[in-house]
Automatic annotation (TrEMBL):
Keywords of this entry: Signal
The UniProt record lists the keyword Signal: yes
Keyword Signal: yes
Signal peptide stretch: 1-31
Lineage top rank: taxon: Bacteria
Protein name: Putative spermidine/putrescine transport system substrate-binding protein
Provenance organism: Terracoccus luteus
InterPro entries attached to this UniProt entry: SBP, YnjB
Length: 426
C-alpha cells in the first residue's frame, strides 16, 4: 500500500539498534500493554474497560497518526474526512507525514528500546515487514483490535486480515483498506496487451526502452520482483509462504536470470532504475515508458482525471492474478493516548468512513469490510458508489489474487536482486 503502495522495508535501521531489539524481542515481546479480547460479542476495551469507558477516556486526547505523506488524496481524506469525524468524538487527530514508513518504525523501536511510555506516535499506517519487525520486538500494542465494535463488519476468516505478510495479526493492528499489485499501461501505445506476467516480460523485450520497474528495496519494485518469482516458479503455489533458504536457493536462479536477461531491454538499457514508484509514474506520465505499476491502484482514477496520466490509461489484469494484501493501523506500545488511538481506528473501520474512502472522488481505496455483514442501508451506500472509469471493481482486479510471501522473504530477495541483477553488467 504505500502502505499498501509504499510501506517501507526495515532497511535503514541502525545495526546496533536491530541487535538490541533482538534481545528485547526475546525477553519482552509479550510485555506490551494488552487489551482483553472480546468474549461472546463483548466490547471490552483497554485494561478491562468497556467501550463506553474507552470512549470517555479518549475525550480530550490528541492522536498522532504517522503515515506516508506522498499521496495527496490520502492526505486530504485524513485531513478533511477522518479528522473532523474524530473531533466529533472528542479526539484531536494530527496527521504526521513521513517520507518513508521506516521513519515511524525506527522511532517506535527506539522508544521501545529506551523504555519510553509517553512516546510521540499513537498510530502508524503500516503493513508487511515493518509490522513484522515491530511485532518481533514487542513494539506494538496487541490484543486490542478484536475489541473494536466495527470489527464485527469484517470477515474473521479473511486471510488478508488474519495475516500480514505471513505474520499473524493477533489483534496487534486494525485493518484499514485492501490493495492489489497492479500493472498499468497506455492502450494507445499497447493496443494488444499481454495477459500474463511472462507475456509482459516478452513484450518488454520486444519493445526496448519502453518498460522498467523501481529498484528494490522500494516497495513497488520489491513486490514486482516477488511477482516475477511467482511467474518463474510456475505459480505462487510453488513458492513456500514461509521463508526457506533451500527454497530460495532452488527458485531464485531462474528469477535472477530472467531479470538479468531483461535488463538490456529496459529504459536506459537498465543502466539505471527509477528510485521508487513515484519516479516510475513520472516516466509513464512523460511518455518515456508505456507501462507503470502500483500496489495502490486507488490513485489511478485521480491521475487520469487530472491529466497527469493519459486518458488511454488502463489496468492490465493477468490471467494468473497478482499479489494482494491489506493495510493496517497499529498502536505503538509507547503511545500515551492508546484509548484515543483505538477510537480513531474504530472510526476508520466504520461503514460510513469505509464507504467515503472507497469513493474514487475521495480516495478510492478498497474496503476491508464484508458488505454482507452490513445493514441494508449501509450496504446500499457501497452498492451506489460510482465506478472508476480506470480501476476495475475489487472482485475483478483481485481475481486469482496471489498471497504475499512472509516478511522474511523480502530482505533476501531485495539483497539478491542487488547482487545478481543490479551488479551485473548491463
Amino acid at each position: 500500500m504505500r502502505p499498501p503502495t509504499r510501506p517501507p522495508g526495515i532497511r535503514g535501521l541502525v545495526p546496533s539498534l536491530v541487535s538490541a531489539l533482538a534481545v528485547v524481542a526475546v525477553t519482552t515481546s509479550c510485555a506490551a500493554p494488552q487489551v482483553a479480547a472480546p468474549s461472546g460479542g463483548s466490547t471490552s476495551g483497554a485494561a478491562g474497560l468497556s467501550w463506553a469507558q474507552v470512549k470517555e477516556a479518549a475525550r480530550g486526547q490528541t492522536v498522532s497518526l504517522w503515515m506516508w505523506g506522498g499521496d495527496p488524496k490520502g492526505n486530504a481524506y485524513v485531513d478533511t474526512v477522518l479528522t473532523p469525524a474524530a473531533a466529533a468524538s472528542g479526539v484531536t487527530l494530527r496527521r504526521v507525514p513521513v517520507s518513508d514508513t521506516k521513519d515511524a518504525l525506527n522511532r517506535v523501536l527506539s522508544e521501545r528500546q529506551a523504555g519510553v511510555t509517553d512516546g510521540k506516535i499513537d498510530l502508524v499506517w503500516v503493513n508487511g515487514d515493518n509490522f513484522s519487525t515491530g511485532q518481533q520486538a514487542g513494539a506494538w500494542r496487541c490484543g486490542w483490535s478484536e475489541s473494536l465494535p466495527n470489527m464485527r463488519y469484517t470477515d474473521p476468516k479473511d486471510p488478508l486480515l488474519v495475516n500480514d505478510f505471513g505474520a499473524p495479526v493477533r489483534g496487534c493492528e486494525s485493518p484499514w483498506h485492501k490493495a492489489q499489485f497492479t500493472l498499468v499501461y497506455d492502450s494507445a501505445k499497447v493496443p494488444d496487451p499481454p495477459t500474463s506476467l511472462a507475456g509482459v516480460l516478452e513484450w518488454a523485450a520486444a519493445h526496448p526502452g519502453r518498460f522498467t520497474y523501481p529498484a528494490p528495496p522500494d516497495f513497488t519494485g520489491s513486490v514486482f520482483v516477488r511477482q516475477v518469482l511467482y511467474s518463474t516458479a510456475g505459480g505462487y503455489a510453488n513458492v513456500p509462504a514461509t521463508y526457506d533458504k533451500a527454497a530460495f536457493d532452488r527458485l531464485t536462479p531462474a528469477l535472477w536470470k530472467t531479470l538479468t536477461d531483461l535488463r538490456p531491454s529496459l529504459w536506459r538499457q537498465g543502466s539505471t532504475y527509477p528510485r521508487d514508484s513515484v519516479a516510475l509514474d513520472k516516466l509513464y506520465a512523460d511518455g518515456e515508458v508505456d507501462m507503470t505499476m502500483t500496489y495502490g491502484p486507488a490513485t489511478l482514477t485521480d491521475l487520469v482525471a487530472k491529466g497527469t496520466f493519459p486518458r488511454t490509461t488502463r489496468v492490465l489484469t493477468l490471467d494468473e492474478g497478482t499479489v494482494g494484501n491489506a493495510s493496517f493501523l497499529a498502536i505503538p506500545a509507547s503511545s500515551p493516548h492508546q484509548e484515543a488511538a483505538m477510537v480513531v481506528a474504530d472510526l476508520a473501520l466504520s461503514p460510513a468512513q469505509q464507504a467515503t474512502k472507497a469513493d474514487p472522488a475521495t480516495w478510492g481505496q478498497f474496503t476491508v469490510l464484508d458488505t454482507s455483514r452490513l445493514s441494508a442501508g449501509d450496504a446500499d451506500v457501497f452498492a451506489a458508489l460510482p465506478a472508476s472509469p480506470v480501476v476495475p471493481p475489487y472482485p475483478v482486479i483481485s481475481k486469482n489474487a496471489n498471497p504475499e510471501l512472509s516478511a522474511a522473504w523480502v530482505a533476501p530477495l531485495d539483497e539478491g536482486w542487488r547482487r545478481a541483477v543490479l551488479s551485473a553488467s548491463p
